[in-house]
Design goal:
Elements lengths: L1 H9 L5 E4 L6 H7 L3 E4 L13 E3 L16 H9 L3 E3 H10 L3 E6 L4 H14 L5 E3 L11 E2 L5 E5 L4 E3 L2 E4 L8 E4 L13 H13 L6 E5 L3 H8 L5 E5 L6 E6 L2 E6 L2 E7 L5 H16 L4 H8 L10 E6 L10 E6 L4 H15 L4 E5 L4 H5 L6 H4 L5 E5 L7 H4 L7 E4 L2 H11 L5 E5 L7 H12 L5
Parallel strand pairs: 1-2, 3-4, 5-8, 5-11, 6-8, 11-12, 12-13, 18-22, 19-20, 19-22, 20-21
Antiparallel strand pairs: 6-7, 9-10, 14-15, 15-16, 17-18
Helix pairs in contact: 1-2, 5-8, 5-9, 6-7, 8-9, 14-15
Length: 457
């Protein structure tokens, strides 16, 4: 919604918004764009009399314990018959019509792959528009209209709005669609994996016959989606028999197109997941005439996205100025598979150095506890794990019990910081993972480490 606000502003509209608990980097972007964000959802905001209310899917008809509306502004809009629409519908009707839309879908990697593809097209001189669910460091903003025909969009399977329960991505009508991977997620709106597969098939139904669908050949779930029917050109990536494959490690690999070497990628990003993201972006750009060699050259200058293994600071422990620094990272991982992938990638980079994983089960899926049993598996590469358990309806101690003494649990961010400072050693890598602001833990941790932390003997 923040990116959508930025696009509307760039298109010449006067834009205001309201939300609760806005946090960086989006809060900073909106501030820099001069877009006023009001706190809360008060009915008095109807006095602004906008031409259109664009409603995000956080809004519902829910009631508080005292019977009052959780979103009184929405109730006022309905009561007064004021004009409203959903974010995806407004975007499709006002900004995407007539564009070559490249949609990036998948349980994991949507933001990074969307940023990669946007940068490849920019590097090739196509001046794409884009809407990314994060802030790509190459651009410094999460969205722009662009001057060319191409528009790259992060295509989320989450529902559109309380009045439109279709997945967001069915509104976008892409000509190029990436299906990056598919696992069970969003347990608050989907009953099982098959329900999500059905939504992905609805996306395929919107791709024209002269369009292209790019599919991760390693995913059985996506094979099932294709078996439901596909009316467009299909290209695969990732598997040994795919159209686009990679040879070599994640940081230096050769790209093969139907068995022939067409490019080489050398970059600073780690992890097999980023290698697959790169293959997907290269294959999608090729649909617009960008050669894999040109795409690989662009990726060598790709700077990733904020909150994707973003280094928030490096600090020397108190009294240990000559020892290796402690590095603190911020990452958006919140699904068990994403947590495991993030830690696996870091392990490849740091070798035998200690990894301290700090995570917040904040997504609706994680709060419901349906994936808690996967947490020990997702944290295998961490030497120590620290879980923020505040607000959970399940016992984090019990879920992490298979990890034994390697796992710590705390109900507050301040307690987590204290636990970390008690055990941190020079040269440690601390990864803070959450899909929210995590209570400002990064700044608190860096300040506490520099001031008071003592390494163990």
């Amino acid at each position: 919604m923040g990116g959508l606000a930025a696009l509307a502003r760039e298109a010449g509209h006067r834009v205001t918004g309201c939300d609760a608990g806005v946090y960086p980097p989006m809060s900073e972007q909106l501030r820099d764009l001069g877009i006023e964000v009001m706190q809360g959802f008060g009915a008095d905001q109807t006095a602004l009399a906008p031409d259109m209310y664009v409603v995000g899917n956080v809004v519902s008809r829910a009631r508080q314990t005292d019977g009052s509306a959780k979103f009184p502004l929405m109730e006022a809009i309905l009561d007064q018959g004021l004009p409203y629409t959903s974010g995806p519908q407004w975007l499709a009707e006002h900004l995407l019509a007539g564009r070559h839309v490249l949609a990036v879908a998948g349980t994991h990697g949507k933001t990074t792959t969307t940023a990669m593809l946007s940068w490849i097209l920019e590097h090739a001189g196509l001046q794409p528009g884009f809407l990314v669910g994060g802030v790509p460091l190459n651009f410094g903003v999460s969205a722009r209209l662009g001057q060319g025909a191409a528009f790259v969009i992060e295509a989320d399977e989450y529902d559109t709005a309380f009045f439109d329960k279709r997945s967001k991505f069915v509104h976008y009508r892409p000509r190029t669609a990436i299906l990056n991977n598919l696992e069970f997620d969003h347990a608050d709106i989907f009953d099982n994996l098959q329900a999500i597969e059905r939504q992905f098939h609805h996306l395929l139904r919107t791709v024209p016959s002269n369009g292209r669908v790019l599919v991760n050949g390693l995913e059985e779930s996506l094979a099932r989606v294709l078996q439901m029917g596909c009316w467009s050109e299909v290209r695969s990536f990732g598997a040994a028999v795919s159209d686009f494959t990679a040879q070599g490690g994640p940081e230096d690999f050769v790209v093969l197109q139907q068995g022939a070497q067409v490019a080489r990628v050398q970059w600073a990003l780690g992890g097999v997941h980023n290698q697959l993201n790169a293959l997907a972006a290269i294959a999608a750009a090729e649909h617009l005439g960008v050669s894999p060699a040109r795409a690989a050259l662009a990726l060598q200058a790709f700077e990733n996205v904020k909150r994707r293994m973003e280094v928030r600071g490096r600090v020397a422990l108190a009294g240990e100025q000559t020892m290796p620094l402690v590095t603190v990272y911020d990452d958006f991982a919140h699904h068990p598979t994403a947590i495991r992938t993030t830690l696996d990638g870091l392990r490849r980079q740091v070798g035998t150095a200690r990894i301290l994983a700090v995570f917040e089960p904040r997504s609706n899926t994680m709060k419901l506890g349906g994936m808690k049993a996967q947490l020990p598996w997702s944290l295998e590469q961490a030497d120590l794990a620290f879980c923020h358990s505040g607000g959970l309806g399940w016992d984090a101690h019990e879920a992490l019990a298979p990890m034994g003494a390697r796992a710590r649990v705390a109900e507050s961010v301040d307690t987590l910081v204290e636990q970390l400072c008690a055990v941190v050693q020079a040269g440690d890598h601390i990864v803070c993972m959450s899909n929210g602001g995590f209570g400002g833990i990064h700044a608190k941790l860096l300040a506490s480490l520099a001031r008071a932390a003592k390494p163990l003997p």
